[in-house]
């Protein structure tokens, strides 16, 4: 049975400081965020009713707003409390949490310094995408046509809505071609990330991942690096060229939605999900379910 559209669901959304019925959480069509992508957001998960690394996400949310030249009018503590309130009020245990902030409708031009900054927090049921056995078969990735931009041309360190336009296009193209997602290169043709997840490779028992200087240094990415180091694994954050993929062994992606998901193919390159991927899946699962 298909779920109703997101604007027709039941429950509560926190909006500008108060809980409102889900279907009443609306914005005007002339909101600046809609027309000029002056919006930032977070993607978070709750496990067992507790949001994983909620404070880190709230801190990044505020920083993203600063990078887009606006101040989100709530503190980290207020945002964390509001997110937990929404999870609790909607009765979820394992769910996705989406804070979003955008410039409102006071000004409709490129410049919008006097626009009100609106904030909303929604949550919805979203169990893990795959069980471990299914994950270990590996997903297939296309190689995206679009590239992550030069940091001098876009606010790459913000989780900004506008930066995801090419991700949507790349994922649509990948799915039409029979892939689950797409790996994106950076503006210089080096391996960067996927459309909504960071990427790792293994070789000779060590991890290799691109330097996050033109794309988001994901909170899940940092968690995986920490888990790997706890296991005594060497983690190499470095430039990775596409032609190197033929010599790498395992590959996995990670993010709030993907969690840790092994990869079996990237275009013409093949990988064999193995013990390091399985270990990090298990370690990540244990980490997010800590009391």
CATH topology of the largest domain: D-amino Acid Aminotransferase, Chain A, domain 2
Number of domains: 2
Count, helices: 7
| Poorly predicted segments | none
Characterize the largest beta sheet: strand count, sense, and whether it forms a barrel: 9 strands, mixed
Mean pLDDT, as a whole number?
96
Listing every helix as H and every strand as E from the N terminus to the C terminus, the arrangement reads EEHEEEHHEEHEHEEEEHEEEEH
**Name of the CATH first level of the largest domain:** Alpha Beta
Q: How many β-strand runs?
A: 16
Coarse morphology: globular
- CATH architecture label name of the largest domain: Alpha-Beta Barrel
Q: Strand pairing plus helix content: what structural class?
A: alpha+beta
Strand content: 25-35%
Descriptors for this entry?
291 residues, alpha+beta, D-amino Acid Aminotransferase, Chain A, domain 1, D-amino Acid Aminotransferase, Chain A, domain 2, 7-stranded antiparallel beta sheet
Question: Can you put this structure into words, describing what you see?
Answer:
With 291 residues, the protein is of the alpha+beta class. The chain has two domains: 120 residues, Aminotransferase class 4, branched-chain amino acid transferase, N-terminal domain (D-amino Acid Aminotransferase, Chain A, domain 1), CATH 3.30.470.10; 157 residues, D-amino Acid Aminotransferase, subunit A, domain 2 (D-amino Acid Aminotransferase, Chain A, domain 2). It is built from seven helices and 16 strands. The strands form two sheets. Strands 8, 9, 10, 11, 12, 13, 14, 15 and 16 form a nine-stranded mixed beta sheet that branches. Strand 14 and strand 15 form a beta hairpin. Helix 2 packs across helix 3. The longest helix has 14 residues. The protein is globular. The model has no long low-confidence stretch (mean pLDDT 96).
